[in-house]
User: Which sequence fits this backbone?
């Protein structure tokens, strides 16, 4: 059983984040929260999201699973104005999720979740941690585009840096510690990541969000941030590109 | 002889409605009004428009016919700002229509109307009639898109409904009588229509327009509405899709 | 040696004008100004721009040459907001131009200028001269589009005219002397020009600019205008199309 009402903007934020990685997703529903774990087909990036009951206008659920086609959900989101609420109700008999927006009713067939296994979230400790406004990351990505397929993230005791080095050209954004919301880096650490993945997730994060970027040398980067007025936790992992020597 | 001045927004509204069905059109001009009848090449929909002399800023005409290429007229409309007036004058000697917008003059060759016969407008009585704001129809269409190629329109004594049923998914917009501008339906009637035609005409109708939707079981739908501050009458017919059993 | 700071809007204006003709350009730099001469690959149009040191926020240079790929420069311009300044510095050792916008650094490899010869700017006297707002020229071009590939420019003692004549249709914009900023034409002169070139340059000129259009019978047209608050002079030549008899 699952019946919940949510602000359209909150659902939109969540769906756009997840759809940077997968087309279909399994939501795991409990009385306290809705959660998901997803890994992209190439196994380069992974996402884990926990949306607490308080992120919803109203929320009533027992343990269940719902598989959704995210493109269909996006088409429903387009029917809602920014101030609309969306009511979702699981029709278990018919295997559908029912969306209601004002006087619109949209019944959506569910995706079979039996073959959708939860990916294992890696337990890793990363030595550096940077709290940075998403606008800075977005600026860094725009500068990097068309120079190379990879972006280097670097933290040192004085600041945080995104840089991109092509055969002849180079772009670099340095955020000094004074413009960061927080920085922990005992020494300089850096890793190289695929620009397309990093760019997709950074562009999907809403303006104004502060992201906790956890880094180390040649390790995955972990992006931690909150959505839904702090009631949803997102954890995103992206595998590094290890340069062979 | 035909010489008239019209607000660019009024002409734009008329042209966009007609061009949902045909690329070329014959205007029949008399001292009292400009009118047209057009049917799409597949004979699925038909439109009749009568534009009274009062829809124009100034209007002077004798009986005549003018055939126009609507894409060319649209390119002229793009030259006019929303507050511009457009002067049209028939140059009978040259077989052209002359448009003037400010200090721009545009001479347009006419389309031969000798083979353009007026379609016969069907005389049918439809039992139900619904007066509904175009914004509701537009919302219903957006919900229906990507679910099926057909849309069902339904009227009953309690309200009006647009619905679309695909193999697995369904979308529905119900407008209760309280949100309608008027409703006459003794019993429930409904018909199925091609979504693309219905969508094209509904999207071309200006915001704020109230449409009189006349319906019956497995009959054409008739959409009646006014443009040009009430001085132009539009009547649009769309053939039903009869489901074979 | 070259180091200069410039408003992003000023650099944008200059780059968009030049890139209507060429993809790569050689800037000739002196202590007093930055200048360029460029001719399009088909040798139909030519441009000469002189940007005085006062067009810059700060400017420090010795004689040098810098070859730039304009698409790359446009990608840098996209990183700057309208109120941002852009610092440019020539790294002679590395053969790069370094751009700085806030905390972004962009190192750009230079284009080899050894094979880029300065085109010879023609010395011609044109008998008519019209000072006209760029908005009028832009309106005339929009009216001409899709009618013909050529546009006629005409000046006579009473006004200035753009006209375009196709096989069946015609568009014309006449600006009477009262709506011009200046007019010198003893007799009527007119020439025909390729619409695509004329359209590209006219669309790239910023709103509000007054252009000095110099004309004669079957001669190139010369467009003279200022950018950068009057501190940059642009001279654009476009070859006429001589109609064979």
Assistant:
């Amino acid at each position: 059983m699952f019946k919940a009402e949510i602000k359209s903007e909150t659902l939109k934020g969540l769906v756009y984040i997840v759809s940077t990685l997968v087309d279909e997703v399994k939501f795991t529903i409990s009385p306290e929260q809705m959660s998901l774990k997803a890994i992209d087909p190439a196994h380069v990036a992974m996402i884990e999201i926990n949306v607490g009951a308080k992120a919803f206008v109203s929320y009533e659920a027992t343990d269940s699973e719902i598989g959704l086609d995210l493109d269909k959900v996006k088409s429903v989101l387009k029917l809602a104005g920014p101030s609309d609420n969306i009511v979702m109700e699981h029709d278990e008999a018919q295997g559908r999720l029912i969306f209601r927006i004002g006087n619109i009713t949209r019944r959506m067939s569910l995706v079979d979740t039996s073959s959708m296994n939860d990916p294992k979230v890696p337990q890793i400790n990363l030595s550096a941690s940077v709290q940075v406004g998403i606008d800075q990351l977005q600026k860094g990505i725009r500068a990097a585009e068309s120079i190379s397929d990879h972006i280097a993230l670097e933290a040192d005791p004085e600041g945080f840096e995104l840089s991109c080095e092509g055969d002849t050209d180079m772009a670099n954004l340095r955020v000094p510690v004074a413009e960061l919301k927080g920085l922990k880096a005992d020494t300089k650490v850096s890793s190289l990541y695929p620009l397309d993945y990093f760019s997709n997730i950074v562009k999907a994060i809403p303006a104004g969000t502060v992201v906790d970027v956890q880094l180390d040398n040649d390790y995955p980067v972990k992006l931690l941030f909150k959505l839904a007025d702090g009631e949803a936790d997102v954890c995103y992992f992206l595998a590094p590109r290890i340069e062979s020597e």
In short: The longest strand of chain A covers residues 45-52.
